[in-house]
Amino acid sequence: MQDEQNPTDTEVKQRRIRSFVVRGGRMTDGQQKAYDANWEVYGLDVANGRIAYEDVFGRTSDVVLEVGFGMGASLVEMAKNAPEKDFIGIEVHPPGVAKLMMLAAEAGVNNIRVYCHDAIEVMADCLPQGQASTFQLFFPDPWHKKKHNKRRIVQPLFAQQVANVLKVGGAFHMATDWEAYAEHMLEVMEEQKNYENAAGKNQYHPRPEWRPLTKFEQRGERLGHGVWDLIYTKITD
């Protein structure tokens, strides 16, 4: 067993990778009140370490993970529309976390929980390994300038980190409105030996009906912007 005080080089490298760039995380008084009022019900603390989904939700179910849910409206809608599933959102932006919890409380949704922390550390230190049914990454920062492409979250190492928390048969679902990033995602994922493209090799996937259209996406559609979904199934550990 690896000594926690002396992590391997790979573990050190993984924990240095960040899944976000913080841009103005300060909350308004109203957001802070919403955060404080709802955290006890919906919040998960990284300091508590590895969780068990059955303990968190009080049942055995399909668990959906989403990284970078923004202001949370679409994730709450998915949880509301699929009461038989349980959802965990991971977002580093405190106002977004506050908004998601407020929306969940207003809708009476109780099958959702949230981490306000970097996803890479949550995935490594807090989530059960090999158990989630779905991992969602919708509209991540495209880092569209070529010199910044290396900052894109979808890289071979991240694909493996996602595979670590997915069960065999689980799905890694991505969506982006940047065609160049879609091509990058496709290139990265087609090289992964433990995934299979659900739409067929080198193919994008039609938007599933259960993925809600965000206001941002609806506006993009009116302007003629494309959106690309990719779904990969984990086929082996």
TrEMBL record:
Any GO MF annotation of the entry: tRNA (guanine(46)-N7)-methyltransferase activity
UniProt cross-references to Pfam families, sorted A to Z: Methyltransf_4
UniProt entry keywords in alphabetical sequence: Methyltransferase, S-adenosyl-L-methionine, Transferase, tRNA processing
Enzyme class: transferase
Binding site for S-adenosyl-L-methionine: E66, E91, D118, D141
GO cellular component: tRNA methyltransferase complex
Residues the entry annotates as binding substrate: K145, D177, T214, K215, F216, E217
Region (Interaction with RNA): 147-152
Source organism superkingdom: Bacteria
Pathway connected to this protein: tRNA modification; N(7)-methylguanine-tRNA biosynthesis
Function: Catalyzes the formation of N(7)-methylguanine at position 46 (m7G46) in tRNA.
Record-stated family: Belongs to the class I-like SAM-binding methyltransferase superfamily. TrmB family.
Name of the protein in its database record: tRNA (guanine-N(7)-)-methyltransferase
Species, as recorded: Marinomonas gallaica
Gene that produces this protein: trmB
